[in-house]
Prior knowledge:
three-stranded antiparallel β-sheet, 9 helices, alpha+beta
Amino acid sequence: MIAQRLIEDARAAGLSIEVEGADLIVEADCEMPPDLIAELRRHKAELIAVLVPPSRASTPADPDELDERAALIEFGANVPRRWAEGYVALCSMAPPSGFSPERWQRIVDAVGSFLDRWASEAITCGWSDLDVFGCDRDRPDARFDCMGLLLLLDRGDVIGIDESGADLVIGGKPQRYRRHPLPASAISLWELARRSTA
Length: 198
């Protein structure tokens, strides 16, 4: 998990990280490594999600705690509230049917990175919830015609986004994801979380 690795790297470099409101507070007694600080900024939403976890004692997670985490991500990463709430749901849900825990974690990490870096640009370009978070309600792992951008990022990165699609690097090779109307069976990834707790 990227956020956990960054926290460990920060601690190894003598930095302390805390969440205060919607901000990450990074303090150090020595000079802060600029590359590490840039990575912490880039993965702010993921770090907030890890540093402000829902209570382990409450099962399921307390709605007030989940709401607080979503608010921190919404304002910290400047993303729409439904995307922040969706990300919080993805972070706290078990892998859906057809996804290995490793693949699901890569997708959750990719969602956090996307929210930090590309969400505001996607919104400006008119991307919808389904364009970004779409999946099939019954076969989210296999129905590529229902997949939004994020399900394709378990082994890739977004390097550009515009009204018609996104430029990706997957396995070191550039590729293009083209926005397209999704079938009626498509739902947002976070709806899988709602279905798994129902």
